[in-house]
Design goal:
By secondary structure, the chain is of the alpha/beta class. Helices cover about 35% and strands about 25% of the residues. It contains nine helices and eight strands. An eight-stranded mixed beta sheet has the order 1-2-4-3-5-6-7-8, sandwiched between helices. α1 links the parallel β3 and β4. The protein is globular, with a radius of gyration of 18 Å.
C-alpha cells in the first residue's frame, strides 16, 4: 500500500513541567478499526530519525494504526523554565516508562487522533535500542499489550569508558542513579520471561557486544519467545541520519515485524 493512501494526523499531549509527548498517527484509509502499534525511538534518536517515518508508513500501510512519538526528553531539550535536574530526569528509563504509560492511557481514553479507528483490544509495541528494553518492561507490566517487538534493544546507554561518577554529565548521572534505584524492576531478562504477550526480538549480529550477549541471555531465559538474528546488521541496520534510504537488513527487520504482527494480531 503506498504512502499516498495513508491518513496522517499530528498530536501533542501535555505533561507536567512544561513537557509533552508529540507524535503522529498513521493508518490506512477506510472505516474499519485497525490493530494498534506504538513505536518507540532509541535513546539518541527521535520520531523522525532516519528510518522511522518510512518504517511507520510501511507498517501503517500493511493495516495498522501506528503511533510514532517523541519521548518527553526531546521536549525537555527546548522547554522554557525547566530546571537542569528536571531535564536530566526526563532522560531516565523511569521517565520513558511513564511516557509510555501516558501514551497508553491517552489511547485507551480515546484522546489520540482518529481514536475510533484504533482497536484497543489489539495493541502492540515496537522499541529500538534502549526503548527495546523499556518496551520489554512495559509489556511485562501491562497485559493490555498483546504483541511486543524489540529491535536491537535492551541495555541502557553506558557512561563513557574510564570515567568516574564525578565526571558524568547531569543526564548520565540521572540515568545511572535511576538504574541503581530500580535494579530489580529493570532486570530485562527476568521481565521478558514474564511477558505474556507474543514477542519477537530482532538482533543484528554486528551490533555491540553487550547487546549480543544480552540477546543470548534473552534466548536462554525466555525461550518461549521468537528470536531473529539478522546477518551483517549493525545497531541501525546499516542506515544513517540524514536518511539515505532502506537497506536489506532494515527491509528484513520491517518485513519480519509486519508478518509477526499480522500473525499475532489478525
Amino acid at each position: 500500500m503506498s504512502h499516498e493512501t495513508l491518513t496522517f494526523e499530528h498530536f501533542k499531549l501535555p505533561l507536567e513541567n512544561g513537557l509533552y509527548l508529540e507524535g503522529e498517527v498513521r493508518l490506512p484509509a477506510g472505516t474499519a478499526t485497525k490493530p494498534v502499534l506504538l513505536i518507540s525511538h532509541g535513546f539518541r534518536g527521535h520520531k523522525d530519525w532516519a528510518f522511522w517515518p518510512e518504517v511507520s508508513g510501511r507498517i501503517a500501510g500493511s493495516g495498522f494504526y501506528t503511533v510514532s512519538f517523541n519521548f518527553s526528553r526531546i521536549a525537555a531539550r527546548d522547554a522554557d523554565g525547566i530546571s537542569p535536574e528536571e531535564a536530566a530526569e526526563a532522560a531516565t528509563l523511569s521517565r520513558e516508562l511513564a511516557d509510555l504509560e501516558q501514551l497508553l492511557h491517552s489511547l485507551l481514553e480515546g484522546r489520540l487522533p482518529l481514536a475510533g479507528l484504533a482497536d484497543t483490544e489489539r495493541i502492540a509495541v515496537l522499541g529500538h535500542s534502549r526503548a527495546g528494553g523499556s518496551n520489554i518492561l512495559f509489556a511485562a507490566e501491562h497485559p493490555e499489550v498483546k504483541a511486543l517487538v524489540v529491535w536491537n534493544g535492551g541495555a541502557a546507554p553506558q557512561p563513557r569508558q574510564g570515567e568516574g561518577p564525578a565526571a558524568l554529565t547531569p543526564q548520565e548521572q540521572a540515568v545511572r542513579e535511576d538504574q541503581l534505584r530500580n535494579k530489580e524492576r529493570f532486570n530485562l531478562e527476568e521481565a521478558l520471561s514474564r511477558v505474556s504477550a507474543a514477542a519477537l526480538l530482532i538482533q543484528g549480529d554486528q551490533d555491540r557486544d553487550a547487546l549480543l550477549q544480552q540477546h543470548a541471555g534473552f534466548r536462554e531465559q525466555a525461550p518461549q519467545h521468537r528470536y531473529l538474528s539478522i546477518r551483517g546488521a549493525d545497531h541501525t541496520f546499516g542506515t544513517v541520519d540524514p536518511y539515505e534510504g532502506s537497506t536489506s537488513a532494515l527491509n528484513e527487520a520491517v518485513t519480519s515485524t509486519i508478518a509477526f504482527l499480522q500473525e499475532k494480531l489478525a
